[in-house]
């Protein structure tokens, strides 16, 4: 290849780079424009229904009197249980597989299965939750069954993100800890895990964002489409001041309540559904904001 051909090839590569940049930027703007249009349409339809009565009233057959109290309270219950169950189990499993597990056929089989489970449709987890938690473990169609089912749904995602975050930690940090006499657990606990925590939190954010909008698994385990009461609160005024009876109460969540309203013919229920979507987005943004705050806080503490 002579000098002229190299110059022409260089110009062609620069032109292709610019074309790819323009194409990527255009596709991003298109996606953001579609998303913004959908959000504005939802806000326009549902903003008028957002008031204190809508948040503090139970569902009703009359769209003007319908509220979303039981749905958003049930969503908070389910999301809290899901995170409490899935986060520690997923992180511990990821640490074991990445830092402690021997490299053999059994470990390879486990890794392949975890990667496959991350792509399994959510309805399959609903069937698993129905058979395992509702029928076999006799938990009933309760809050704890819903939280455990969604925990299974996001567990593979948390395990994979934990392993990727641990791999991103420079091996020199481990070597330095071993050089000063730290044990394996001391190295993981005080050096590797804090450094990997921002990446773990990122994976957890994505997993929880998926869980909060899932409807199919909860429908399979028997979440109600209409409920006029709340799960029993965990705090009480009498000794022992804490009880978990609410974990075994029936429940509903925002996606199911929204689905129920959308399926009705009255126009007023479409406005209620739009307002419910706004509440659901608000809860999702709030959860993500808390997780991002924790991730940023740990990132500032890291000094490689």
Structure description:
The protein has 304 residues and is an all-alpha fold. The chain has a single domain (51-225, 242-301), classed as Orthogonal Bundle (MetI-like fold), CATH 1.10.3720.10. It has helices at 3-46, 52-56, 69-100, 105-117, 122-136, 143-168, 171-179, 184-212, 216-220, 254-262, 267-301. The longest helix has 44 residues, at 3-46. The two termini are 45 Å apart.
- The number of distinct helices, counting runs of at least 4 residues, comes to 11
**Roughly how many Å is the radius of gyration?**
24 Å
How helical, in percent, are the residues? Answer: over 70%
Kindly report the average pLDDT value.
85
User: Which spans have pLDDT < 50 for at least 5 consecutive residues?
Assistant: none
List the domain count as a whole number: 1
- Largest sheet, strands/sense/barrel: none
Category from helices, strands and their pairing? mainly alpha
N-to-C SSE string, H for helix and E for strand = HHHHHHHHHHH
Gross morphology is: globular
Beta content: under 5%
CATH architecture: Orthogonal Bundle
CATH class: Mainly Alpha
Q: In the CATH hierarchy, what is the superfamily?
A: MetI-like
In CATH terms, what is the fold-level topology?
Answer: MetI-like fold
Question: Distance between termini?
Answer: 45 Å
Topology readout:
Elements: H1 3-46, H2 52-56, H3 69-100, H4 105-117, H5 122-136, H6 143-168, H7 171-179, H8 184-212, H9 216-220, H10 254-262, H11 267-301
Helix pairs in contact: 1-11, 3-6, 3-8, 3-10, 5-6, 6-8, 7-8, 8-11, 10-11
